[in-house]
Write a structure and sequence with these properties.
Length: 504
Amino acid sequence: MNKSDTIRLCQILLNVPIPKTLVYDSKILTGYDGDTKKNIVTYSASNMTQKPTADATVMIKAPKLAIDKSVNQQTVSIGDKISYTVKASNTGNVALKNPYIVDTLPEGMEKPSNIRINLENNTSLTLSESQANANADGQYYLWNNDTRQLTVYLSSTKNLKSNYTASVYYDSKLLTGTDKEIKTNTAQLFGENDNGDNPKDSAPITVIGKPKLGIVKEASPTKVKVGEVVNYTVTLSNTGNAYAEKPIIKDILPEGMEKPENILLKGGFNLPIEEGSTNSNKWGEYYEWDEGTRTLTVYISQTDNQAPNSNRVLTYSSKVVQGTAGELKTNVATGSAANTTDKPSDKATVTIDRTMIWLHVKQEVVNKQNSVVLPTTGSLNLKNVDVANVSNQISESSMIIPSYKADTNQAFKTVAFIWNEEYEGYLPEVRIPELYTYSGYQLTTVEQTHQSVKRVNKLIPVIDYYTNSEYWLTVYIEPKISSDGPPFYNWDYKINDFGNIKFN
């Protein structure tokens, strides 16, 4: 008898002259498959001393439900994707109509994905979200982000038959959680005729915490002169969900920077720290300086570790004791901890301020001809321009430069300029004396012997003082005469007073 059926009990009353029959109906409201329900009737009358009884027993036929939930791993780290399996079974005598599973996920778990079902065979079907996308068997799922409930409708046409098991599979990624936190999600089975028999099962996971280190380095000021002090700030962050054990900052300073001073740790105890492990404070904090590798190593919270979602800030100062104008001094800080492979790094760069820039320049004559006077001076125009746009010129100046026979290793003339950050370039233009022609140039960033064989037979390019503050330039010219030689008289000879010309 199904428990939703109406029971009609007929009790025949005995020991009366005329038999009487009592008929009534009652609906079974609760009970499980295989349960028995016994109904006892008692007859009495005022002139009877005995009270005869009779009973009727019915057995309930209903679905008998069970659910089993499992997960492919019990310990999970942030970012791990885990797979759940939910098995719903019916061992009762009656099919469960319109079966569905409600699975409640805890906070910190991603919306389920790759949701599949296996109802009656060994083939898994991938389900779509919303009833509008249900397949031919009425299978689909819903996700409620507010209640964090996944509802999987197993079938609206096939039901969950007696002695059948339906399996649901899905994936979910762990997004947030704290170290050793237990996250439990519970699945429960429902149906149209479940009679309140809604078994549930859970699959807990334990979060394995990991520290996540980050580092930011800053310098102030970013432009300095030799002899000035740079203040550095290094922030080591732990945005993970576990303590960073024995965190360390290593900071490598460039050449020309003095040993760090005024070393202070903030973001916790805000105390100066001393050099050497024997001078560590009660939290095991101290620093070491290696002059050979120019490395500052700071040991942070060696006894207390660094908590999740916390920052420790290292500040120190260092004087610039050596450097050339325009030089970039970069140092790199790296963070680490004993229980993570994270080694984030960041750098800070300061520029040695360029108050002055220099040009060392001369002119040399190649292929000297005795028939042409060797000039002792040359003329050069310098246009101060924007390197990115040469036509953008701020000023122009002319200068007299020394002139020599090529490859005699004579001295340069040194010219100094005031550095202009917006107009970093100088464009040289050579004024060629009569009877000569331009024959190339040589430009170097270090002082060295210029040789005419190494000259570049092109126009002199813009000299970029952003990349270097000092250049050496040799301009080459050579005689330009016809096969008949130079003319007998040249006005430049007169006005420049080159001296008497002898005829042989």
